[in-house]
Amino acid sequence: MVITREATVADEQVNEEILEGAETAAQASEDVVGDEVAPTELVSQIEALTAALALAKEQTLRAQAEEQNARRRAQQDVEKAHKFGLEKFVGDLLPVADNLDRALAAIDTDDVAFKSVAEGLELTRKAFSDILAKHQVIEVNPAGEPFDPQLHQAMTMVESPDVEPNSVIDVFQKGYTLHGRLVRPAMVVVAK
Predict the structure, then answer these.
(1) With 80 as the cut, is the pLDDT of residue 159 above it?
(2) pLDDT at residue number 111
């Protein structure tokens, strides 16, 4: 349980006000002599005690609310740490996926000698992609989509009458997100 300094100070103030209220009540009972009671003084003391009690209740509620907020913030921080703790590790693994893609693009699949190598690389790339997807690492491959500066990094702009302006023509490097947070932007060529 996390106890904040403000909550401790608020509790001390509440305790002091309750003690002051008790002293005032004791003093009021001493003022009563026989059947003689100073009604205006007693009423004012009761009002003061009621006000002190209301203030003490309000401060207690505020301290409890502050404690709950602190707990909730701590819980959210822990959840974010669990969710995005792999971000640096994922960023370090992404060049491996890029190299597998480059190897697949460079190999001649028509040549019988390289066919089994290409098949092995494809299976390795698929297994790697499945593991990334299992951990909520999603590939951003925006070929043909409109340019989005939050997910894409424009490397160059090329005039192209065949496609709409501000759309992605080619992808140099795929981007990746982890639980919706961008780990690496996709490097793209954009149409003018």
Answers:
(1) yes
(2) 85
